[in-house]
Amino acid sequence: MTWNEFPWFATASILLWTAGAASALLSKKSFSPWAAWLTATGLCVFAAFIALFWTGLQRPPLRTMGETRLWYSLFLMLAGLLTYCRWHYRWLLSLSTVLTLVFTLMNILKPEIHDQSLMPALQSGWFVPHVTVYIFAYSVMGCAFLLAMAGWVKRTERYRPAIDRLTCIGLAFLTLGMMSGALWAKEAWGHFWGWDPKETWAAATWSLYLIYLHLRLSGKGRASVLNALLVVGFLCLQMCWYGVNYLPAAQESMHVYS
Amino acid sequence: MQKKLTGRTSTMRTDKLYIKIWGVYFGVALLFQLLLPDFPTSFFAFPVNAALVLLTLVGLWLLRKEKPFSPVTRLLASPSTTLILMSLLAVSCLCLGLTSRPSPSSWWFFFLLAALFLHLLMVFYAGAFRRRPHRLRFILIHGGLLLALLGGFAGAPDTAEWRLPVGKERPTRQAYTSQYGKIRLPHSLQLKDFNVTYYANGMPQEFLAHLLLDNTKNITLSVNHPYTLSPGDDLYLVDYEHVAEPRFCVIQVVRQPWKYVQSTGIWLLLAGCVMLFAQGLPTGMARKEKRTEKGGQP
Question: B184, B180, B242, B246: which is closest to B211 by C-alpha?
Answer without folding.
Answer: B246
